[in-house]
Design goal:
Blueprint: H1 2-22, H2 25-30, E1 34-41, E2 52-55, E3 58-69, E4 72-80, E5 89-97, E6 100-108, E7 120-121, E8 126-127, H3 132-145, H4 148-162, H5 166-185, H6 187-206, H7 208-227, H8 229-253, H9 256-273, H10 275-294, H11 380-384, E9 443-445, E10 451-453, H12 467-471
Parallel strand pairs: 1-7, 2-6, 5-8
Antiparallel strand pairs: 1-4, 2-3, 3-4, 5-6, 9-10
Length: about 475
């Protein structure tokens, strides 16, 4: 009894596996887990009932029925549920081997909504393989058209060509098989690449002219390299030695070279800031040189060449008068006859009159701001800020006092946070010199040791002189 029970359980399990897994009887009888799609074909093409249906090389169903229609053949496909197959596809009937075994391959054309139960794949999107009998007949006709002697020669030559290459051909076939296996394992990526390669190919087509031009330029470069092969070889042979000498030069220039390069960075920043000015200078310099040379052209190769250029000097004094506005007040100005050199007063001293005034038109107040086109200011700080230049007066007189002005700006303009500067002390008076003189004659000895005579110091020189008489010219003079 125990053996019978065990045999019955094993038989029940085997039958269940046969029915539900291999035969898939519920799907065949009731369509559980499947849906049907109809494919319109021009002819059966050897397709038979229960044939396989594949999608991207994977089995996804079976051929449920193949039936005739007034216009051709319809194949009913039973597809597994849960696998989304795009509805925009092509159904192709292929042979799995040389002896037949046709199956249906579903090949998607684009991303689209998935197939659903009852969909029909139209005839214009399906195809069947050519008839094998027709192929064999065409092959037979082709072989008969070939002369037997020539065919024998072709076979013999083919044997000579591949004879002894068995290991190499085997290695080639083995590599092709491995490649095919890897391609099957990465089928989704390859399919995605195939589906999306069109935009890349379109870009290549659109840029065909550029690619052709690049190839032509590359050919020109290679021709030049071939023509100057000796020069290129010399560069390759002598390049390492030259590089070593340059490195040694840099080593000898340390630490001077880094300092020079660091200073050049600052110079470069200034040059970038004043790029427009440098450009204008380079434009005007040739014209200025031409104008300077033009002054000597009239006298060139003439008898008057020794006289030089024709120039006209007009001496205009005090036209226009100098600007005194914005500088130190008169009581703080140094006497022009002094020869000492005191420290420069703190602050900015410049002509502070309107920018469009006729006085000192090239003064610092009219300096163009490099970073603010259209703005003029006397200092970089004022150029970079939103502050505008404010004049003191029209330039005809000095206005204000040492500490404040009517416009609210101090004179001189001190940097922010600087304490007010006290006025300089008055210049010391020269010492009083005294010397003894002879009242009888009015003679005296000067500091230099020489004897001098002043007649109005002698007795009897006449009535005392007043300051009015000192201003009057002498009688008869």
């Amino acid at each position: 009894m125990i053996q019978l029970i065990i045999f019955a359980v094993v038989g029940l399990i085997a039958g269940s596996l046969m029915i539900f897994d291999f035969i898939k009887l519920p799907a065949l009888l009731f369509g559980v887990g499947h849906y049907t799609v109809t494919v319109e074909l021009p002819e059966a093409g050897g397709l038979y009932k229960s044939g396989n249906v594949t999608y991207r090389g994977t089995e996804v169903g079976r051929v449920e029925d193949v039936r005739l229609t007034p216009t051709g053949v319809e194949a009913v496909l039973s597809l597994q549920s849960g696998i989304d197959i795009p509805s925009d596809l092509e159904a192709e009937v292929h042979s799995q081997s040389a002896v037949g075994e046709q199956f249906v391959a579903l090949i998607p054309r684009s991303m689209s909504p998935p197939l659903k139960n009852g969909d029909v794949i139209a005839r214009d999107r399906s195809s069947v393989p050519p008839d094998i009998n027709t192929l064999l007949g065409a092959a037979n006709t082709g072989l008969q058209a070939i002369p037997h002697d020539n065919l024998k020669t072709a076979v013999d030559e083919a044997y000579t060509a591949v004879g002894g290459l068995g290991p190499d051909i085997a290695r080639f076939v083995k590599g092709s098989t491995a490649l095919a296996i890897d391609a099957r394992n990465n089928l989704d990526e390859l399919t995605n690449l195939t589906d999306n390669v069109a935009p890349v190919l379109d870009t290549q087509t659109d840029t065909a002219d550029s690619v052709q031009a690049w190839a032509a330029h590359l050919a020109t470069i290679t021709d030049q390299l071939r023509t100057h092969d000796a020069a290129v070889a010399g560069v390759l042979q002598n390049g390492s030695g030259a590089a070593a000498e340059v490195r040694q030069l840099f080593d000898r220039l340390q630490p001077t070279l880094p300092i020079v390069l660091a200073n050049l960075v600052s110079t470069g920043q200034v040059a970038v800031t004043y790029r427009d000015n440098i450009e204008q200078l380079l434009v005007l310099l040739p014209q200025g040189a031409a104008m300077q040379q033009a002054t000597g052209v009239p006298n060139r190769n003439t008898k008057q060449a020794y006289k030089g250029a024709f120039l006209d000097f007009n001496l205009n004094l005090n036209l226009p008068p100098p600007c005194t506005t914005g500088f130190l007040p008169p009581q703080q100005q140094r006497v022009a006859s002094l020869t000492d050199y005191p420290d420069r007063p703190a602050g900015d001293l410049y002509c502070r009159i309107p920018q469009d005034s006729m006085f000192n038109v090239r003064g610092v107040r009219n300096t163009p701001c490099e970073t603010r086109p259209g703005k003029r200011a006397p200092t970089v700080k004022m150029c970079e800020s939103d502050e505008n230049y404010v004049p003191l007066n029209d330039g005809f007189n000095w206005k204000g006092d040492p500490n404040a002005t009517l416009s609210g700006q101090g004179i001189p303009q001190l940097p922010p946070g600087s304490p007010p500067q006290a006025p300089p002390p008055p210049a010391a008076l020269p010492p009083i010199a005294a010397a003894e003189y002879d009242p009888a004659t009015g003679t005296y000895v000067g500091p230099d040791g020489h004897v001098y005579t002043q007649s109005n110091l002698a007795d009897g020189a006449g009535a005392p002189r007043t300051w009015q008489s000192m201003l009057m010219p002498p009688a008869g003079g």
